[in-house]
Amino acid sequence: MTAFKSGDPTTLNRLYGRAKGKPLRAGQQDLVDNLLPQIAVPAEGAITAERLFGYDRPLHFEIGFGGGEHMAARADMLPDHGFIGAEPFVNGVAQALVHVAGNHGAHPPLGNVRIQHGDALEVLRRIPDGALSFAYLLHPDPWPKARHAKRRMMNDGPVDLIAAKLKPGGEFRFGTDHPIYLAHALMVMRRHRHQFEWLAEKAKDFLVRPAGWPETRYEAKARAQGHEVWYFRYRRR
Ligand SMILES: C[S@@+](CC[C@H](N)C(=O)[O-])C[C@H]1O[C@@H](n2cnc3c(N)ncnc32)[C@H](O)[C@@H]1O
């Protein structure tokens, strides 16, 4: 297991997890070498829609996009919006680049996606407060042992950061199939109820994937294993 420095003790001290898995295929390596530099989030300075996309537009931010299928499907659905995704796992970045490049004819190349190969929180801190319309945290690494609870992305520091970056009325979407993470997340989000309103009226609202919420790879795997999946939509107050 690799541990990365993340650099902000008020959020997550370190970025835990895999950085690299199987060697990339030649086509994926080519995308990492040639497409990624064109659509990478700038290494320094404020990150605004104007800077990334040339003009102001609603901004979406996905933390830990895995293989990028949710981010790409959302970007395809909302071509006038801008999408920023962060993922430290290079194989995931390479898969996301395949989606951005054109997804085998399922959709044209996506011009509205920018990628950070690295820590989501480092980028999130550089987005001006109140600039995001949507933030996504889908199937974060569960870190199920109690002694690792601080490593979970759903904790006070990251949630405060997400709250700061969302505009009033903006939406935070969170999904998991992990019962321990679910309980932990509900506890954390309850502490943040001054910032977020949980948009659930009935059980169906968190048991059934909402419209406009494309399935992620982990979600599909979880369902294939017979797990229940829970969906949470929170509106920034
Ligand atoms: C269980 S996977 C889920 C991936 C994807 N969201 C899905 O649902 O298929 C969790 C992902 O979060 C990523 N991750 C962990 N810490 C992160 C961080 N600080 N910033 C960005 N991504 C992170 C991991 O590399 C991993 O790909």
From TrEMBL:
Pathway stated in the Swiss-Prot or TrEMBL entry: tRNA modification; N(7)-methylguanine-tRNA biosynthesis
Domain of life: Bacteria
Gene Ontology terms: cellular component: tRNA methyltransferase complex
InterPro entries to which the protein is assigned, alphabetical: SAM-dependent_MTases_sf, tRNA_(Gua-N-7)_MeTrfase_Trmb, tRNA_methyltr_TrmB_bact
Residue sites binding S-adenosyl-L-methionine per the record: E62, E87, D119, D141
EC number: 2.1.1.33
Gene Ontology molecular functions: tRNA (guanine(46)-N7)-methyltransferase activity
Keyword Cytoplasm: no
EC class of the enzyme, as a word: transferase
Residues engaged in binding substrate: K145, D177, T216, R217, Y218, E219
Annotated keywords: Methyltransferase, S-adenosyl-L-methionine, Transferase, tRNA processing
Catalytic activity line of the entry: guanosine(46) in tRNA + S-adenosyl-L-methionine = N(7)-methylguanosine(46) in tRNA + S-adenosyl-L-homocysteine
Pfam families: Methyltransf_4
Keyword Chloroplast: no
The protein's role, per its UniProt record: Catalyzes the formation of N(7)-methylguanine at position 46 (m7G46) in tRNA.
Family label: Belongs to the class I-like SAM-binding methyltransferase superfamily. TrmB family.
Protein name as it appears in the record: tRNA (guanine-N(7)-)-methyltransferase
